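Hi U.,

Before I forget, here's the chain from the pilot set. I'm dumping it here mostly so it's searchable later in email.
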Amino acid sequence: MKMKPSITGLILAGVLCTYSALAVSQAYPNKPIKLVVGYPPGGSGDFLTRILADEMGKDLGTTVVVDNRPGAGATIATDIVAKSAPDGYTLLNSTHHTIGKAIYKKLPYNPDTDFIPVSLVATGPLIVTVNPGFAVNSLRELIAYAKANPGKLFNATSGNGSSPHLAAVLFKAVSGTDITTVHFRGGGPAAQSLIAGETQVMFATSPTVVQFIRAGRLKALAVTTRLASPSLPGIPGAEEAGLPGYDSSFSFGLYLPAGTPATIVKRLHESAARVLSRADVRERLAAQGMDATPSKSPEEFAAQLRAEAPVWERVIREANAGVE
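Structure:
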């Protein structure tokens, strides 16, 4: 004879579940956390990830280990996190997930259902950068050269679907130029190709190239946002530099695997927000041309991602930047 659960039993089960969730939250974290990023050392993603790992580790009282997994437009790193245990010990620092979904027709994960957004981390303009030996000194001159030499201007990017790639795609559409794109496995290798003169131009995230610009090893023509950035003094905005209607920026955010307990999501969001609100951390990011932009809540970040998704989908579709 099958027994029906008693009301007392159901109440007790509910209390035990609540206690168990609370115990997990109070014990977390009790071992190192892995922070995965889809780019190699030397680029903006790696720079930002290392700051987060160091400062969030101190804030949480544990070690946060950076795990660089470059390749395939950061989809390798994203897949690793999607298939990780939802226990809060594997975290992803990444650009907007819709980008990978719009570019790659087949993905080994579902960007809409396999992740929980935690917080936006930082945003910034890219810098239109050229080799110092390349005989252009302004954005207007770059556009004129590209129009006079269709297909002969080589642009280095940090990978298909990366922010530099999409900034270049939008630049070509707005300026009406034909530029040949060369993909590298991250911003560091792309910048080295530009310094070596193998390529002539790069739409680079600021942390990737700002030190090279200050050292005179690269030359900045403009930022990719409409207006100049206070974090990058002396570099004009796209409108002032001669390309009205051009506006592109990059951002990174934190994600957890779907199924991670809400208490842990909240704990990590609060830690990121505390770290990114500190003046010293904000100054370190500003020195590299980035602004700390933590979300007020995971829900706010999720809403922002939903609002921005159609924009990225349209840019990639109109540029025919997808990969079969």
